[in-house]
Amino acid sequence: MAAPKVAVVGAGVIGLSTALCIVESCPSCSVTVLADQFSPHTTSDVAAGMLIPHTCPGTPIHTQKQWFKETFTYLFAISNSAEASEAGIHLISGWQVFKNAPKEELPFWSDVVLGFRPMSKAELQKFPQHRYGQAFMTLKCDCPPYLLWLEKRLKATGVQMYTRKIADLWELQGEYNVVVNCAGIGAHQLVGDEKLFPVRGQVLKVHAPWVKNFIRDGDGLTYIYPGIHRVTLGGTREKESWSLSPNAGTTKDIFDRCCSLEPSLRGAQDITVKVGLRPSRQCVRLQKEVLRQGGVKLLVVHNYGHGAGGFSIHRGTAKEAARLVGECIAALQGFSSRAKL
Questions:
Q1: For the purposes of burial, counting CB atoms within 10 Å of the CB of 315, is it exposed (0-12), middle (13-18) or buried (19 or more)?
Q2: What is an annotated GO biological process for this record, any one (predicted)?
Q3: 25 labeled binding residue
Q4: Which structural domains are found in the chain, ordered by start?
């Protein structure tokens, strides 16, 4: 058969990294990215891009750890290359602090990040309201730079990118052999996934170049994540809220909470407010599906529903999605060679 045509729907961190993994694992494929929004207008552009996993209750821990490890290894190599600045990837040290010691003193990812250890009493003096803490070094992907770097890599390999709103995957039948659904929260409507729900996140991006270390409250609600140019302050987790409008009361609450962890932030300037809808479900949907209408088939690979932890596992899930695309193409090629016989 001719070069298999693959469409990736979605251009956030999941869509772009999945497209890149397909190109790397199946160079003979013709890959196209279709999305109604590209950077800087994606949910991924709102995210802080920190590599600190969020546990998905419906996914086995060993699978989550594998995805995280593959992502960390991939980004660590970029952070050690000449591409690091353009890709917006850097190592960052900091603290995760708790008002009470957590049940799990060693999270499943503690041996993947660098130098994970309990905080000393002297360090904890910085956080008088907290009684326990963990110190470690991890990676951060700044967006838009990381998404633009992925787009550049894709264009260099001949991947086409088009702004196009897809209302139904069946629109792509006949144009493409395999369709990869990386639509994030858009999958709620696109494929009618009732198990997918938004968790609204509001964050502030501020200018505070003296803040060098990340600080994360163990409840995951309050966090300070310094990037190369801006510091992300968060946040909120509002289940089932579809509102993309910033809330002024929430902005003040986030700022006050972050200042209680890092009082010097009172001097932060140039505050902008961003809102994103995390595509959440019990587990990431990462699977093949054959859609049928009458006698017509459409091969689909789903890769969405990463919730708050998309950046932490994006490369691992992209590799798995690319492997599933490879299986679809092998099945198609087997079918076409049998048809010739």
A1: buried
A2: L-aspartate catabolic process
A3: no
A4: 5-335 (3.40.50.720)
